[in-house]
Protein backbone atom coordinates (compact mmCIF):
# COMPACT_ATOMS: atom_id res chain seq x y z
CA UNK A 1 0.00 0.00 0.00
CA UNK A 2 1.27 3.50 -0.85
CA UNK A 3 1.81 5.85 2.07
CA UNK A 4 -0.38 8.94 1.61
CA UNK A 5 2.48 11.31 2.40
CA UNK A 6 4.78 9.65 -0.13
CA UNK A 7 2.10 9.91 -2.84
CA UNK A 8 1.50 13.59 -2.02
CA UNK A 9 5.23 14.34 -2.12
CA UNK A 10 5.47 12.57 -5.46
CA UNK A 11 2.64 14.66 -6.91
CA UNK A 12 4.33 17.86 -5.68
CA UNK A 13 7.58 16.78 -7.35
CA UNK A 14 5.74 16.15 -10.64
CA UNK A 15 4.00 19.54 -10.35
CA UNK A 16 7.37 21.22 -9.76
CA UNK A 17 8.91 19.53 -12.82
CA UNK A 18 5.90 20.38 -14.98
CA UNK A 19 5.91 24.03 -13.90
CA UNK A 20 9.59 24.32 -14.84
CA UNK A 21 9.08 22.62 -18.22
CA UNK A 22 6.15 24.90 -19.07
CA UNK A 23 7.93 28.03 -17.85
CA UNK A 24 5.24 28.94 -15.33
CA UNK A 25 5.64 31.97 -13.13
CA UNK A 26 6.24 31.09 -9.48
CA UNK A 27 2.99 32.77 -8.41
CA UNK A 28 0.97 30.48 -10.71
CA UNK A 29 2.79 27.39 -9.48
CA UNK A 30 2.25 28.33 -5.83
CA UNK A 31 -1.51 28.72 -6.41
CA UNK A 32 -1.66 25.05 -7.34
CA UNK A 33 0.82 23.85 -4.74
CA UNK A 34 -0.93 25.42 -1.75
CA UNK A 35 -4.73 25.27 -1.61
CA UNK A 36 -6.63 28.40 -0.70
CA UNK A 37 -9.26 26.51 1.27
CA UNK A 38 -9.71 22.95 2.57
CA UNK A 39 -12.79 21.39 4.13
CA UNK A 40 -13.22 17.92 5.61
CA UNK A 41 -16.54 16.57 6.84
CA UNK A 42 -17.51 13.37 8.64
CA UNK A 43 -21.04 12.12 8.04
CA UNK A 44 -22.44 9.43 10.36
CA UNK A 45 -24.92 7.12 8.61
CA UNK A 46 -27.01 4.44 10.27
CA UNK A 47 -26.93 1.39 8.02
CA UNK A 48 -29.84 -0.99 7.33
CA UNK A 49 -28.44 -3.50 9.83
CA UNK A 50 -28.40 -0.85 12.59
CA UNK A 51 -24.63 -0.35 12.58
CA UNK A 52 -23.10 3.10 12.29
CA UNK A 53 -20.70 3.97 9.47
CA UNK A 54 -18.73 7.21 9.25
CA UNK A 55 -18.15 8.54 5.74
CA UNK A 56 -15.60 11.28 5.12
CA UNK A 57 -15.87 13.93 2.44
CA UNK A 58 -13.25 16.41 1.22
CA UNK A 59 -13.32 19.65 -0.74
CA UNK A 60 -10.20 21.55 -1.72
CA UNK A 61 -10.21 24.90 -3.54
CA UNK A 62 -6.92 26.00 -5.03
CA UNK A 63 -7.90 29.38 -6.45
CA UNK A 64 -11.08 31.37 -6.82
CA UNK A 65 -9.65 33.43 -9.70
Observed structural traits:
two-stranded antiparallel ribbon, 2 helices, 31% strand, alpha+beta, 65 residues, elongated, 42% helix
Structural write-up:
The protein is built from two helices and two strands, in the order H-H-E-E. It has one domain (4-61). It has helices spanning 4-22, 26-33; strands spanning 37-46, 52-61. A hairpin with a 5-residue loop joins strand 1 (37-46) and strand 2 (52-61).
Distance between the termini: 36 Å
- Structural class, by secondary structure, is alpha+beta
Arithmetic mean pLDDT: 88
**Major pleated sheet:** 2 strands, antiparallel
Strand content: 25-35%
* Rg, Å, rounded: 18 Å
DSSP summary: helix tally: 2
Morphology call: elongated
Amino acid sequence: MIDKHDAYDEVLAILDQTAKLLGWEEQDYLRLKYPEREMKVSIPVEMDDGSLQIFEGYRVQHSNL
